Request: fold
Amino acid sequence: MADIAVTPEHLGHSYLENTGKRKGIAAWIFSTDHKRIGILYLISLFTFFSVGVILGILMRLEMLQPGGKLFNAQDYNALFTLHGVIMIFLFVIPGIPATLGNFFLPIQIGAKDVAFPRLNLLSWWLYVTGAIVILLSLFQHGLPDTGWTFYVPYSIRTGTDVTMAVFGVFILGFSSILTGLNFITTIHRMRAPGMTFFKMPLFVWALYATAWVQVIATPVLAITLLLIIIERVFSVGIFDPSKGGDPVLYQHLFWIYSHPAVYIMILPPMGAVSEIITTFSHRTVFGYKAIAMSSLAIAFIGYLVWGHHMFVGGISETAQFVFSLLTFLVAVPSGIKVFNWVATMYKGSIDLQPPFLYVMAFIFLFSIGGLTGLVLGSLATDVHVTATYFVVGHFHYIIFGGGVFIFFGALHYWLPKMFGRMYNKKVANWALAILFIGFNMLYFPMLVMGYEGMPRRYFTYLPQFETWQRISVVGSWILVAGLIIMLTNLIRGVFKGEKVGNNPWGGTTLEWTTSSPPPPENFEEIPVVTHEPYYHPEAAN
Amino acid sequence: MEAQEAKSHSEQISHGTYVLVWLALIVLTCITVAASGINLAAFTIVVTLLIALTKASLVVNIFMHIKFEDKIFKVFLGIAGFTLFVIFSLTFADVFFRR
Amino acid sequence: MSQIVEPASSDVIHGHEAHVHKDNQGAKIGMWLFLLTELLLFAGLFLLYSAYRYFHSDAFHRAGLDMHTLFGTLNTIVLLTSSLTMALSIAAIQRGKKWLSITFLSSTILLGLSFLTVKYFEWSSEIAKGIYPGSAKLLDRSNGEILFFGLYYTMTGLHGLHVIAGMIVLIFMLVFIVRDKITKDDYIKLENAGLYWHLVDIIWIFLFPLFYLIN
Reply:
């Protein structure tokens, strides 16, 4: 990484050049520059993403034929557990905030760095430590086989190495908390002169809401996981039913974190969507305050609905009713966002660049995810499709089709700023097309199979599902082909891409006013903000 | 960002105030121990928790200087308090009505 | 720990200004956010406690008979007093009285140590009675009682770990004051360490009645 030689357009240094006394890799892994930390995260995240993808591909491959030809049941259990743990805790939860958020949050508010740069570096190190601990569980006897939710009492009693995996996730929680804490303080204390809260870009608003969820929700996960370890190691009676414990309370605690965590995964992408849509519509965003506030509203309502993961888990009928009702409230702020995005595009001069096309794909996939969510959110229908492929399809449409597609789109949007070079746009468009086809071939059959009763987490299936399973398996190959093309194109762009100016897309937020790649302290001098974000004097609004 | 603002407002609190608050905390502790001896049925837990809340708010306001801090700190505490309220009430929507 | 108590203030603005500008308010915001996470961490345990107490209220009362109210009360007074000396230590440094501050801070650390000593005798006595996680004697008792003692050991144990962490932080602070790294004009580290210590006290304020005054 340290060897990337990029000449910035102007005479100053870029953050990519080493100026301190450290050389080589040490200049990166001990750097407190938020931009370098963002890139460290980016590299680590995509490393683990690749591991997660490989595990996912193997799971699909198992489904080529019924009968478990490739793996036995126990290995398959380990596969879906590790796929879930890695994808959720090592990829989508740190996701956009740790990578692009770290890189762009300070720049977008006109700051030189985050509030606690050393803490920021510490949180990357914690991330790496947590990841290594999780990977260590791979080499123990008995891979964890509980699923990523570590439900008790099985997680207490299984002989596999759950303790190690759980401890890894516990450490990752700290990393996430420190990032959130850092972002909140940064936004409160480090804004440039004139940058009031309502002049902040919407991406910053989304990160702000996310940071609160990280700070308020993650500790609950931490204690829950700690209790599993305490119960396993010291045989304390807390959740174990044979000692009077109530496993449903574990589920409460787990989902008190893990439902808000879904909003840790999806709010930052929504923020990036707001940026991308305004930039490529060449128009001021419609309903700025409504979008900003809806981020906070989603973070808040996201806190009230965790029980919808437990409808069939044995909660009281009152709770089922309350949680089902509250679940539908999430649609309100989500709807506000979508309507304002569409209104922003209306009469805009839309420029169909790759990042914008990713947003289009997002809207399509996220809608399917949202609509299938209605089926799962209503009590009566949930009972039929719960714990089937329908759920698997649903959350992949939301998290992969929604969140991760925008992660890719946002990379295409900001890469020229981060490295001062442009990827091949034509290849980027083709990659997206392949991804889109592969994605739908992989996950749409899951919705159908789930509806027809194919249970999730089974290593084999009845012959009647063979056709759909095979379509899905082939879809996974196409998807991976798309991923490889996309990532190769991006990486090639970083090193060999055509050099571009400071503002290739015509963006209006502060990051486009500094050089590409930005100087170590982001701006030659701290900007003074005088008008709203997304200010297009030339456009008729 | 002003240097003055960073200098905390807590400097105005005198040693005497701290000692008084401490005395109040000790007295409240004695009361709560004494009250636990009396059988007030369901009210025992209510009284106990009210005393604990009073003690906690004394510590937060005076020892932790929240009373003298900027509004933002109170907002933060409010967010945490409200979160606790949500977590407890929704969990008890299940616990109370289990069959 | 010390990473959190001493935010990278000198890095905050590594600008061209001749003087290093410290953002004490920012450091305090960061500290309070951290305290909120600690609060939520314990909230999970309090939630479990309240649900289990609701399910097994009789058994919880029976289990409470085996608790040492005296040890609990003593520790409450010790910890409240340590909070007082902590606050006084900050007040002293604010007024530039270095050695007075050191005296109060040392007392705080010693009181923390006393708390742990009392806790040690309390746990030893419970263990001597055969009440500890996984013991045959405990497993013979009713479900509610097993849960009560499970929570008792978990919650007071986790709280005890926080006391130890707090003491380590305070020892660092003591060294900083002695070496004039913490002074009348720059005492945010001590203030943040104090906030942490008070939080540990607040958690105990709630643990005390729930475990020791339930008979």
About this structure: The mean pLDDT of chain B is 86. The interface with chain A takes residues 1, 72, 79-80, 83, 86-87, 90-91, 93-99 of chain B (CB under 8 Å).
